[in-house]
Amino acid sequence: MSEITLGRESSAVAARSASNLCRAVWRWHFYAGLMVLPFMITLAVTGALYLFKDEIDGAIYSNLKRVAVEQTRVAPEAMVDAALSNYPGTAVKYTGPATPENSAEITVTTEDFGKLAVYVNPYSGAVLGALPDRGTIMWTIRYLHSLKYFGDTARLLIELAGGWSILLVGTGIYLWWPRGKKGGVVSVRGKPKSRMFWRDLHAVTGLFVGFFIVFLAITGMPWSGVWGEKVNEWANGSNFGYPSGVRVDVPMSGEHLDHVAKTSWSLEQAKLPESSGVAGTPIGLDKAVETFDRLGLHRGYAVAIPRKPEGVYTGSVYPDDASQQRVIHLDQYSGKPLIDMGFADYGLGGKWMEWGISVHMGQEFGLANQLVLLAACLGIVLLAVSAGVMWWKRRPAGSLGVPPLPADTRVFRGLISILAIGGIAFPLVGMSLVVMLALDWLATRVFRPALA
Length: 452
Known about the structure:
The protein is α+β, with helices and mostly antiparallel strands. It is built from 15 helices and ten strands. An eight-stranded antiparallel β-sheet has the order 4-3-2-1-7-8-9-10. Strands 5-6 form a two-stranded antiparallel ribbon. Helix 1 runs antiparallel to helix 5, helix 7 crosses helix 11 and helix 13 packs antiparallel against helix 14 (427-446). It is elongated. It starts with a helix and ends with a helix.
């Protein structure tokens, strides 16, 4: 056999191998799309809206949240009294104005209406009105985005969607890779009537938004049910739920900070300290706010009001700039700071996660952050729509149109090995991968004619 013939056969084998691998990757890219594209559309739309939460809520509830600036201000306790006179109950939290044009917010637990957010003019002390606590339009959008409306079990879907979207990007990049081609790499060929147009539009859009999909998936993982909790423990240690190195040599209660004052991801497991001298006289909210101001808490901080003799005043703030996050617990009798910690006290993992979450929510870099992520969200919707149109144009009549199996199924071994790495990093994704492998095996032997 001549060297030319051997060379041709070698080239043919290499071409078949590449074709088989491409088919295998395409098949799993299709499966990943089935898993996450519906979620990605929902997450992209709700996420795009939530990027502008302050602007939207400020416009809708301007009568509650905006006030005219005056010279003198009313004391916090007077604002709480005004809120309680209009909405009798128990005041559990005071949130000071974030800017001179903002109202104060008093959270009141009532018997008739549940927990309310009562808005008070900080200059006149007039009550402007009330809403259910976390009852604004943007809180509704946030709960839809995180699937919180559907219970804790739905949080597992966040991890599945995040893990499979990373898989979607990885397989998509492989399929996009030029391999000597020029058309459809960074340009779109054909017209909307042709499948080529939608294929190129899908590929080019995926190229530009793939980075954002991976970033948003990873930074959204802290809210997942399994991965988020385990990484939280790893990032923040077990120092009463505080990052290692934070001084907690004070009496600690069994209550968690997140239960009395919603906190950052890094402090969800943090426990509250206890006040000493329970027979003494509490310093009161006015003195607590004065202390927090003196300690330099960022404006717009919230104060959780103690409801038990051993409780503490907790001042917490999580502004757009993640580096300004801070939580201070005061003894309610002496006013002494028991625990004072901020972003600088987080571990390295906690800092990266908090910074990523801040960027994810469009906060860290102001308007530029919002606009870039808005473009990414629109790109994700376009990516999903183009995938659906492309599939519909390719799908044979009466079948699901699953990409064909490679001629040599041994190529799956390497692909599955790579997928298994992602399955180990994200346990729920790994479990779903096993399920998908089983279903794929069953489909190719029982339902192959209908799916092909």
